[in-house]
Amino acid sequence: MDDRRYEMYSRRQKKEFEDICSRCGECCGAKDDPCVSLAMTKDGKYCCRDYKNRLGPRKTVSGKSFTCVTIREHINSGTLRPGCAYRNLK
Ligand code: SF4
Ligand code: SF4
Predict the structure, then answer these.
(1) Residue 33 φ/ψ, nearest 5 degrees
(2) Phi and psi for 68 in degrees, rounded to 5?
(3) pLDDT for position 2
(4) Is residue 38 scored above 80 in pLDDT?
(5) Which end of the chain, N or C, is less packed with Cβ atoms under 10 Å?
(6) What percentage of the chain exceeds 70 in pLDDT?
């Protein structure tokens, strides 16, 4: 596979993986103490206001500190939230 095709393949794989997310916001604290960057969209789902720079130290609305990590890290460390769509991955 040449570089360009590999790049396209990787992008498609990444999009397919990200599309699994139902945007329920659970992993960002939507049901309890949300991250300050969490926002609700018009369709009643959630999004991150700072997605590109999201990883690393963050604060919740009540002022608690935590670290935002990738969903892959949640999967690998077994910390997926109960309603997370990635729990159904085979
Ligand atoms: S910074 Fe992380 S935890 Fe906060 S809303 Fe964005 S993705 Fe969620
Ligand atoms: S808990 Fe899972 S499905 Fe819900 S927003 Fe987070 S990654 Fe997406």
Answers:
(1) -120, 90
(2) -80, 125
(3) 86
(4) yes
(5) C
(6) 99
Name the pLDDT band for 88 (thresholds 50, 70, 90).
Answer: confident
d(CA 40, CA 49) in angstroms, rounded, equals: 10
Closest C-alpha to ligand 1, atom 6: 48
Which of the ligands is closest to the CA of residue 58? 1
Residue of the CA atom closest to atom 8 of ligand 2:
21
pTM over 0.85: yes
Which ligand is located closest to the Cα atom of residue 51? Answer: 1
